[in-house]
Amino acid sequence: MNWEQIPLGPLQTNCYIVADDKKNCLIVDPGEEGKKLINRLEQRKLKPQAVLLTHAHFDHIGAVDDIRNKYNIPVYIHINEKNWLMDPSLNGSQFFMMGQIKAKQADQLITSEGEMTIGDFTFVVFETPGHSPGSVSFYFKNDGFVVAGDALFQGSIGRTDLPGGNHDVLINSIHKKLLVLPEETIVLSGHGDTTTIENEMDSNPFLNGF
C-alpha cells in the first residue's frame, strides 16, 4: 500500500491517493482542480474504487463530482454531514467569497466507527469530531498511517469556529482516537506537511497539559 499527497485548490488542501500493487486506489478529499487530479490518476494508470471524505468543508469537496462522474464510483461521508455537500451554508463556501461550492449527495453514509472494506482495501474509521460534527479519520493499521483530515496538523489542530465546530470536542477526539495510535504512525493531515503521532505528543502546543 502506498499513498501520495496532492495539494489542490487555493487553500492547498491535501488530497490523498491510497493505492495498492494492483493499481486500485481510494481518493481521499478531492478538494479542487479535478482535471489535475484526473491527469495524475491517468498518468499512474490507477483505478479509483471510491471517494472518501474526512469531512465536507468546501475546500475538501470541490472535485468530488469530477471524480465520481469520471470513474462512476461511490462517495462516502459521515452521516452527521449528509446534507453538507449540497449546502454552501453548511460546507462553508458561502462565508469565504469563493463561490458557492456544491456536490451531489454522497452515495454511502458512514454511520459508525469500525473496520471498513472497499474492494481490496481494509481500514478503520474513527469518528474524530470537533473541527466539524462529522469529521472522521481513516486508519490504515498495517501500513502505519492515518488520514486525519483537519483534526490534527503538524504543530496545530483544526479550527473550530465554523458551523458545528467545538474546541473541547476536538481536543477529546485527538486524545482519545489519534494519540492512542502507535507513536510511529504517520499522520496525513488536510493541510501542510505530514507528521507522526510521536511528534505531536511531544511538541504540539495545543495538546500539552491536557
From TrEMBL:
Q: Name one Pfam family in it.
A: Lactamase_B
Listed cofactors: Zn(2+)
Please tell me whether the keyword Metal-binding is annotated for this protein.
yes
| Residues in Metallo-beta-lactamase domain copies | 12-191
Coiled-coil segments on the chain, per record: none
The Gene Ontology terms for molecular function here are: hydrolase activity; metal ion binding
Q: Where is the signal peptide?
A: none
Q: Which domain of life is it from?
A: Bacteria
Q: Which SMART domains would you find in this protein's record?
A: Lactamase_B (SM00849)
Q: What SUPFAM superfamilies has UniProt attached to this entry? A: Metallo-hydrolase/oxidoreductase
Keywords of this entry: Hydrolase, Metal-binding, Zinc
What protein name applies here?
MBL fold metallo-hydrolase
